[in-house]
Amino acid sequence: MSPSRTLPTLTQAEVASHNSADSCYVTMGTRVFDVTDFVDSHPGGGELVLEYAGQDVTKILKDELSHTHSEAAYDVLEDSFIGFVATNKVIDTATKSTKPDSIVPLPPSKEGLKELKENGSANSLPVYASTGMSTEDDLNKETDVVNDYKTHKFLDLNKPLLMQIWRGGFSKEFYLEQVHRPRHYKGGESAPLFGNFLEPLSKTAWWVVPMVWVPPVAYGTYLASKGFNNIAGEAAFWFLGLFLWTLVEYILHRFLFHLDKWLPDNRVALTLHFLLHGIHHYLPMDKYRLVMPPTLFVVLATPFWKLAHAVFYWDWHVATAVFCGGIFGYICYDLTHYFLHHRTLPSYWRQLKKYHLQHHFMDYENGFGVTSRFWDCIFGTQLAPAPKTV
Protein backbone atom coordinates (compact mmCIF):
# COMPACT_ATOMS: atom_id res chain seq x y z
CA MET A 1 0.00 0.00 0.00
CA SER A 2 1.29 3.44 -0.92
CA PRO A 3 2.03 5.67 2.12
CA SER A 4 0.19 8.47 0.35
CA ARG A 5 -3.04 6.57 1.04
CA THR A 6 -2.47 6.60 4.80
CA LEU A 7 -0.41 9.70 5.62
CA PRO A 8 -1.74 13.26 5.59
CA THR A 9 -0.68 16.23 3.52
CA LEU A 10 -0.01 19.24 5.78
CA THR A 11 0.13 22.92 4.91
CA GLN A 12 3.43 24.78 5.06
CA ALA A 13 2.02 26.87 7.92
CA GLU A 14 1.16 23.74 9.92
CA VAL A 15 4.68 22.35 9.47
CA ALA A 16 6.27 25.71 10.39
CA SER A 17 4.25 25.84 13.62
CA HIS A 18 6.03 22.73 14.92
CA ASN A 19 9.22 24.61 15.76
CA SER A 20 9.98 23.85 19.39
CA ALA A 21 11.55 21.09 21.47
CA ASP A 22 8.04 19.95 22.40
CA SER A 23 7.06 19.40 18.76
CA CYS A 24 9.67 19.64 16.03
CA TYR A 25 8.98 18.96 12.35
CA VAL A 26 11.39 19.25 9.42
CA THR A 27 10.90 18.64 5.72
CA MET A 28 12.88 17.26 2.81
CA GLY A 29 11.16 18.28 -0.39
CA THR A 30 7.49 17.38 0.00
CA ARG A 31 8.06 14.90 2.86
CA VAL A 32 7.52 15.78 6.54
CA PHE A 33 9.38 14.26 9.50
CA ASP A 34 8.61 14.52 13.22
CA VAL A 35 12.07 14.67 14.85
CA THR A 36 10.90 15.72 18.31
CA ASP A 37 12.39 12.63 19.95
CA PHE A 38 15.72 13.26 18.19
CA VAL A 39 16.27 16.86 19.36
CA ASP A 40 18.00 15.99 22.64
CA SER A 41 20.10 13.18 21.15
CA HIS A 42 21.40 14.98 18.06
CA PRO A 43 25.24 14.73 18.06
CA GLY A 44 25.59 18.38 17.09
CA GLY A 45 23.29 19.52 19.87
CA GLY A 46 19.56 20.12 19.99
CA GLU A 47 20.01 23.81 19.22
CA LEU A 48 21.15 22.96 15.69
CA VAL A 49 18.02 20.92 15.06
CA LEU A 50 15.77 23.64 16.45
CA GLU A 51 17.48 26.20 14.23
CA TYR A 52 15.88 24.41 11.28
CA ALA A 53 12.63 23.42 13.00
CA GLY A 54 9.65 23.75 10.70
CA GLN A 55 11.92 24.18 7.67
CA ASP A 56 13.43 22.18 4.82
CA VAL A 57 16.71 20.49 5.80
CA THR A 58 17.76 19.09 2.43
CA LYS A 59 20.66 21.52 1.97
CA ILE A 60 21.96 21.43 5.54
CA LEU A 61 22.05 17.64 5.52
CA LYS A 62 24.32 17.74 2.49
CA ASP A 63 26.51 20.56 3.86
CA GLU A 64 29.68 18.82 5.07
CA LEU A 65 31.11 22.10 6.40
CA SER A 66 28.24 22.33 8.87
CA HIS A 67 28.03 18.72 9.95
CA THR A 68 28.67 15.39 8.24
CA HIS A 69 25.60 13.16 8.23
CA SER A 70 25.89 9.38 7.98
CA GLU A 71 23.41 6.93 6.53
CA ALA A 72 22.16 6.43 10.09
CA ALA A 73 20.95 10.05 10.13
CA TYR A 74 18.82 9.40 7.09
CA ASP A 75 17.53 6.19 8.69
CA VAL A 76 16.40 8.24 11.69
CA LEU A 77 14.50 10.54 9.35
CA GLU A 78 12.83 7.62 7.60
CA ASP A 79 11.64 6.29 10.96
CA SER A 80 10.15 9.74 11.68
CA PHE A 81 8.30 10.12 8.36
CA ILE A 82 4.75 11.29 9.11
CA GLY A 83 3.33 12.86 5.93
CA PHE A 84 3.67 15.37 3.12
CA VAL A 85 3.64 19.15 2.76
CA ALA A 86 1.84 21.42 0.28
CA THR A 87 0.52 24.97 0.10
CA ASN A 88 -2.93 25.96 1.34
CA LYS A 89 -4.27 26.32 -2.18
CA VAL A 90 -2.99 22.91 -3.25
CA ILE A 91 -4.66 21.24 -0.27
CA ASP A 92 -7.91 23.13 -0.78
CA THR A 93 -7.98 22.08 -4.42
CA ALA A 94 -7.37 18.45 -3.41
CA THR A 95 -10.21 18.62 -0.87
CA LYS A 96 -12.67 19.73 -3.54
CA SER A 97 -11.37 17.38 -6.23
CA THR A 98 -13.06 14.14 -7.27
CA LYS A 99 -9.56 12.66 -7.56
CA PRO A 100 -7.49 14.07 -4.69
CA ASP A 101 -4.84 11.38 -5.18
CA SER A 102 -3.93 13.02 -8.46
CA ILE A 103 -2.98 16.22 -6.58
CA VAL A 104 -1.54 15.21 -3.21
CA PRO A 105 1.00 14.15 -2.24
CA LEU A 106 3.06 16.29 -4.59
CA PRO A 107 4.13 16.14 -7.35
CA PRO A 108 0.67 15.99 -8.94
CA SER A 109 -0.22 13.91 -11.97
CA LYS A 110 -0.94 15.59 -15.28
CA GLU A 111 -4.64 15.53 -14.43
CA GLY A 112 -3.98 16.94 -10.95
CA LEU A 113 -1.75 19.67 -12.35
CA LYS A 114 -4.65 20.82 -14.51
CA GLU A 115 -6.91 21.13 -11.46
CA LEU A 116 -4.27 23.07 -9.54
CA LYS A 117 -4.73 25.96 -11.93
CA GLU A 118 -7.93 26.75 -10.05
CA ASN A 119 -7.77 29.07 -7.01
CA GLY A 120 -8.54 27.61 -3.56
CA SER A 121 -9.17 28.95 -0.07
CA ALA A 122 -6.71 28.45 2.80
CA ASN A 123 -7.03 25.39 4.98
CA SER A 124 -4.42 24.82 7.69
CA LEU A 125 -5.38 21.28 8.67
CA PRO A 126 -3.92 18.04 7.30
CA VAL A 127 -6.03 16.52 4.55
CA TYR A 128 -6.11 12.77 3.97
CA ALA A 129 -6.14 12.19 0.24
CA SER A 130 -8.32 9.08 0.33
CA THR A 131 -11.16 10.71 2.31
CA GLY A 132 -10.76 14.46 1.81
CA MET A 133 -11.02 14.93 5.61
CA SER A 134 -8.76 16.19 8.37
CA THR A 135 -10.17 15.12 11.75
CA GLU A 136 -13.03 13.17 13.29
CA ASP A 137 -14.89 16.47 13.72
CA ASP A 138 -15.27 16.61 9.93
CA LEU A 139 -17.52 13.54 10.11
CA ASN A 140 -20.18 15.74 11.77
CA LYS A 141 -19.94 18.69 9.39
CA GLU A 142 -23.16 18.91 7.43
CA THR A 143 -22.72 18.35 3.71
CA ASP A 144 -23.92 21.01 1.31
CA VAL A 145 -26.04 18.59 -0.69
CA VAL A 146 -26.45 20.74 -3.80
CA ASN A 147 -22.78 21.72 -3.99
CA ASP A 148 -21.60 18.19 -3.21
CA TYR A 149 -23.57 16.73 -6.10
CA LYS A 150 -22.51 19.53 -8.42
CA THR A 151 -18.84 19.02 -7.52
CA HIS A 152 -18.57 15.24 -7.43
CA LYS A 153 -21.43 14.06 -9.69
CA PHE A 154 -21.98 11.03 -7.46
CA LEU A 155 -25.16 10.84 -5.35
CA ASP A 156 -27.83 13.45 -4.61
CA LEU A 157 -28.48 12.99 -0.88
CA ASN A 158 -31.98 14.43 -1.22
CA LYS A 159 -33.05 11.59 -3.53
CA PRO A 160 -33.31 7.83 -2.89
CA LEU A 161 -29.74 6.51 -2.92
CA LEU A 162 -30.28 2.90 -3.94
CA MET A 163 -31.57 3.53 -7.44
CA GLN A 164 -28.91 6.19 -7.99
CA ILE A 165 -26.25 3.54 -7.35
CA TRP A 166 -28.09 1.02 -9.55
CA ARG A 167 -28.64 3.40 -12.45
CA GLY A 168 -25.58 5.61 -12.04
CA GLY A 169 -23.28 3.75 -14.41
CA PHE A 170 -20.36 4.41 -12.05
CA SER A 171 -17.05 2.68 -12.59
CA LYS A 172 -15.70 0.67 -9.67
CA GLU A 173 -12.77 3.09 -9.27
CA PHE A 174 -15.02 6.17 -9.13
CA TYR A 175 -17.55 4.47 -6.84
CA LEU A 176 -14.92 3.37 -4.29
CA GLU A 177 -13.27 6.77 -4.39
CA GLN A 178 -16.54 8.56 -3.65
CA VAL A 179 -18.16 6.15 -1.20
CA HIS A 180 -15.13 6.47 1.09
CA ARG A 181 -15.38 10.27 1.17
CA PRO A 182 -17.77 10.68 4.14
CA ARG A 183 -20.85 12.90 3.98
CA HIS A 184 -23.14 14.08 6.78
CA TYR A 185 -26.84 14.52 6.03
CA LYS A 186 -28.98 17.18 7.72
CA GLY A 187 -27.39 17.02 11.16
CA GLY A 188 -27.37 13.24 11.33
CA GLU A 189 -30.72 12.34 9.81
CA SER A 190 -30.99 9.30 7.54
CA ALA A 191 -30.79 10.10 3.86
CA PRO A 192 -33.49 8.39 1.77
CA LEU A 193 -32.46 4.92 0.60
CA PHE A 194 -35.57 3.47 -1.03
CA GLY A 195 -37.85 6.49 -0.94
CA ASN A 196 -41.00 4.38 -0.53
CA PHE A 197 -42.75 2.05 1.93
CA LEU A 198 -39.52 0.03 2.30
CA GLU A 199 -37.72 2.95 3.89
CA PRO A 200 -38.46 1.97 7.55
CA LEU A 201 -37.05 -1.51 6.88
CA SER A 202 -33.67 0.03 6.05
CA LYS A 203 -33.29 1.52 9.53
CA THR A 204 -32.35 -0.27 12.76
CA ALA A 205 -32.14 1.35 16.19
CA TRP A 206 -29.26 0.19 18.40
CA TRP A 207 -31.52 -1.30 21.06
CA VAL A 208 -33.00 -3.75 18.55
CA VAL A 209 -29.75 -5.74 18.64
CA PRO A 210 -29.87 -6.81 22.33
CA MET A 211 -33.65 -7.04 22.28
CA VAL A 212 -33.63 -9.53 19.38
CA TRP A 213 -30.47 -11.53 20.09
CA VAL A 214 -29.96 -11.73 23.87
CA PRO A 215 -32.97 -14.06 24.42
CA PRO A 216 -31.83 -16.62 21.78
CA VAL A 217 -28.28 -16.53 23.15
CA ALA A 218 -29.57 -17.11 26.69
CA TYR A 219 -31.81 -19.96 25.52
CA GLY A 220 -29.06 -21.55 23.42
CA THR A 221 -26.65 -21.33 26.35
CA TYR A 222 -29.28 -23.04 28.53
CA LEU A 223 -29.73 -25.87 26.00
CA ALA A 224 -25.97 -26.29 25.69
CA SER A 225 -25.62 -26.57 29.48
CA LYS A 226 -27.54 -29.86 29.44
CA GLY A 227 -24.53 -31.54 27.83
CA PHE A 228 -22.02 -30.46 30.50
CA ASN A 229 -21.42 -31.85 33.95
CA ASN A 230 -20.50 -28.45 35.38
CA ILE A 231 -20.75 -24.79 34.51
CA ALA A 232 -16.98 -24.38 34.15
CA GLY A 233 -16.88 -26.75 31.18
CA GLU A 234 -19.59 -24.86 29.31
CA ALA A 235 -18.06 -21.50 30.26
CA ALA A 236 -14.72 -22.52 28.74
CA PHE A 237 -16.28 -23.25 25.35
CA TRP A 238 -18.63 -20.25 25.57
CA PHE A 239 -15.69 -17.90 26.15
CA LEU A 240 -13.79 -19.65 23.37
CA GLY A 241 -16.65 -18.62 21.08
CA LEU A 242 -16.49 -15.07 22.44
CA PHE A 243 -12.76 -14.91 21.66
CA LEU A 244 -13.22 -16.44 18.20
CA TRP A 245 -15.79 -13.74 17.45
CA THR A 246 -13.03 -11.10 17.63
CA LEU A 247 -11.26 -12.92 14.77
CA VAL A 248 -14.51 -13.30 12.84
CA GLU A 249 -15.16 -9.57 13.34
CA TYR A 250 -11.76 -8.76 11.85
CA ILE A 251 -12.11 -11.19 8.94
CA LEU A 252 -15.61 -9.99 8.00
CA HIS A 253 -14.64 -6.34 8.20
CA ARG A 254 -11.43 -6.73 6.22
CA PHE A 255 -12.30 -9.38 3.65
CA LEU A 256 -16.07 -8.99 3.16
CA PHE A 257 -16.96 -5.39 4.01
CA HIS A 258 -13.72 -4.09 2.45
CA LEU A 259 -13.20 -6.51 -0.42
CA ASP A 260 -12.55 -3.47 -2.60
CA LYS A 261 -9.72 -4.93 -4.69
CA TRP A 262 -11.73 -8.03 -5.56
CA LEU A 263 -15.05 -6.26 -6.09
CA PRO A 264 -16.41 -6.94 -9.61
CA ASP A 265 -16.81 -3.82 -11.73
CA ASN A 266 -20.55 -3.97 -12.35
CA ARG A 267 -23.67 -2.38 -10.90
CA VAL A 268 -24.84 -5.53 -9.09
CA ALA A 269 -21.59 -5.76 -7.12
CA LEU A 270 -21.46 -2.02 -6.42
CA THR A 271 -25.06 -1.97 -5.21
CA LEU A 272 -24.51 -4.95 -2.90
CA HIS A 273 -21.32 -3.35 -1.58
CA PHE A 274 -23.19 -0.12 -0.90
CA LEU A 275 -25.96 -1.91 1.01
CA LEU A 276 -23.57 -4.10 3.00
CA HIS A 277 -21.01 -1.52 4.15
CA GLY A 278 -20.52 1.26 1.61
CA ILE A 279 -23.41 3.30 2.95
CA HIS A 280 -21.80 3.28 6.41
CA HIS A 281 -18.59 4.81 5.06
CA TYR A 282 -20.55 7.24 2.91
CA LEU A 283 -22.77 8.34 5.83
CA PRO A 284 -20.85 7.17 8.92
CA MET A 285 -22.86 9.19 11.45
CA ASP A 286 -26.28 7.89 10.35
CA LYS A 287 -27.38 6.31 13.63
CA TYR A 288 -30.13 4.17 12.05
CA ARG A 289 -27.90 2.54 9.44
CA LEU A 290 -25.05 1.60 11.73
CA VAL A 291 -25.99 -1.63 13.53
CA MET A 292 -26.81 -4.70 11.47
CA PRO A 293 -30.46 -5.39 10.62
CA PRO A 294 -31.57 -8.74 12.13
CA THR A 295 -32.46 -10.22 8.73
CA LEU A 296 -28.97 -9.52 7.36
CA PHE A 297 -27.35 -10.94 10.48
CA VAL A 298 -29.34 -14.18 10.11
CA VAL A 299 -27.92 -14.56 6.59
CA LEU A 300 -24.35 -13.91 7.77
CA ALA A 301 -24.65 -16.03 10.94
CA THR A 302 -26.15 -19.17 9.36
CA PRO A 303 -22.86 -20.38 7.81
CA PHE A 304 -21.14 -19.93 11.18
CA TRP A 305 -23.79 -22.09 12.90
CA LYS A 306 -23.01 -24.84 10.41
CA LEU A 307 -19.25 -24.24 10.74
CA ALA A 308 -19.37 -24.51 14.53
CA HIS A 309 -21.18 -27.84 14.31
CA ALA A 310 -18.77 -29.07 11.63
CA VAL A 311 -15.66 -28.18 13.67
CA PHE A 312 -17.05 -29.47 16.99
CA TYR A 313 -18.84 -32.36 15.30
CA TRP A 314 -18.44 -34.74 18.24
CA ASP A 315 -20.75 -32.82 20.58
CA TRP A 316 -23.82 -30.71 19.69
CA HIS A 317 -23.73 -29.05 23.12
CA VAL A 318 -20.10 -27.96 22.76
CA ALA A 319 -20.75 -26.52 19.30
CA THR A 320 -23.82 -24.66 20.53
CA ALA A 321 -21.94 -23.21 23.52
CA VAL A 322 -19.18 -21.94 21.21
CA PHE A 323 -21.74 -20.49 18.80
CA CYS A 324 -23.67 -18.73 21.58
CA GLY A 325 -20.46 -17.19 22.92
CA GLY A 326 -19.71 -15.95 19.42
CA ILE A 327 -23.16 -14.41 19.00
CA PHE A 328 -22.78 -12.64 22.32
CA GLY A 329 -19.50 -11.29 20.94
CA TYR A 330 -21.43 -9.97 17.95
CA ILE A 331 -23.92 -8.21 20.25
CA CYS A 332 -21.02 -6.54 22.08
CA TYR A 333 -19.45 -5.59 18.74
CA ASP A 334 -22.55 -3.93 17.29
CA LEU A 335 -23.30 -2.02 20.49
CA THR A 336 -19.65 -0.97 20.80
CA HIS A 337 -19.66 0.17 17.17
CA TYR A 338 -22.76 2.28 17.73
CA PHE A 339 -21.47 3.87 20.94
CA LEU A 340 -18.08 4.64 19.36
CA HIS A 341 -19.91 6.78 16.82
CA HIS A 342 -22.57 8.34 19.04
CA ARG A 343 -21.67 8.41 22.74
CA THR A 344 -19.16 9.98 25.13
CA LEU A 345 -17.28 7.05 26.65
CA PRO A 346 -14.88 6.12 29.49
CA SER A 347 -11.12 6.19 28.94
CA TYR A 348 -10.51 2.81 27.23
CA TRP A 349 -13.41 3.29 24.86
CA ARG A 350 -12.38 6.88 24.15
CA GLN A 351 -9.11 5.54 22.74
CA LEU A 352 -11.04 2.90 20.81
CA LYS A 353 -13.41 5.59 19.51
CA LYS A 354 -10.48 7.71 18.33
CA TYR A 355 -8.94 4.68 16.63
CA HIS A 356 -12.13 3.62 14.88
CA LEU A 357 -13.06 7.09 13.66
CA GLN A 358 -9.57 7.33 12.15
CA HIS A 359 -10.60 4.34 10.05
CA HIS A 360 -13.34 6.57 8.64
CA PHE A 361 -11.64 9.94 8.18
CA MET A 362 -8.01 8.91 7.78
CA ASP A 363 -7.41 5.43 6.37
CA TYR A 364 -10.20 3.02 5.46
CA GLU A 365 -7.68 0.43 4.21
CA ASN A 366 -6.43 -0.31 7.74
CA GLY A 367 -7.85 -0.40 11.26
CA PHE A 368 -10.39 -3.21 10.87
CA GLY A 369 -10.72 -4.03 14.56
CA VAL A 370 -13.72 -2.37 16.20
CA THR A 371 -13.90 -3.92 19.68
CA SER A 372 -10.09 -4.10 19.94
CA ARG A 373 -6.87 -3.53 17.98
CA PHE A 374 -5.57 -7.03 18.73
CA TRP A 375 -5.92 -8.61 15.28
CA ASP A 376 -4.79 -5.39 13.56
CA CYS A 377 -1.54 -5.72 15.52
CA ILE A 378 -1.22 -9.42 14.65
CA PHE A 379 -1.84 -8.97 10.92
CA GLY A 380 -0.06 -5.64 10.42
CA THR A 381 -3.12 -3.50 9.65
CA GLN A 382 -2.92 -1.20 12.67
CA LEU A 383 -3.56 2.44 11.90
CA ALA A 384 -0.61 4.79 12.02
CA PRO A 385 -1.04 7.41 14.77
CA ALA A 386 -2.36 10.75 13.59
CA PRO A 387 0.35 13.44 13.61
CA LYS A 388 0.55 15.57 16.75
CA THR A 389 -0.88 19.09 16.59
CA VAL A 390 0.01 22.18 18.58
From TrEMBL:
It is found in: Endoplasmic reticulum membrane. Its EC number is 1.-.-.-. GO terms for biological process: fatty acid biosynthetic process. Keywords: Endoplasmic reticulum, Fatty acid biosynthesis, Fatty acid metabolism, Heme, Iron, Lipid biosynthesis, Lipid metabolism, Membrane, Metal-binding, Oxidoreductase, Transmembrane, Transmembrane helix, Zinc. Residues 7-86 form the Cytochrome b5 heme-binding domain. One of its GO terms (cellular component) is endoplasmic reticulum membrane. It is an enzyme of class 1 (oxidoreductase). Binds 2 Zn(2+) ions per subunit that likely form a catalytic dimetal center. It holds the Pfam family FA_hydroxylase. InterPro entries: Cyt_B5-like_heme/steroid-bd, Cyt_B5-like_heme/steroid_sf, Cyt_B5_heme-BS, Fatty_acid_hydroxylase, Scs7. Pathway: Sphingolipid metabolism; Lipid metabolism. Its cofactor is Zn(2+); Fe cation. Zn(2+) binds at residues 253, 258, 277, 280-281, 337, 341, 356, 359-360. Heme binds at residues 42, 69. The chain crosses the membrane at residues 205-224, 236-256, 296-314, 320-340. It is a multi-pass membrane protein. Ceramide hydroxylase involved in the hydroxylation of sphingolipid-associated very long chain fatty acids. Belongs to the sterol desaturase family. SCS7 subfamily. This is Ceramide very long chain fatty acid hydroxylase.
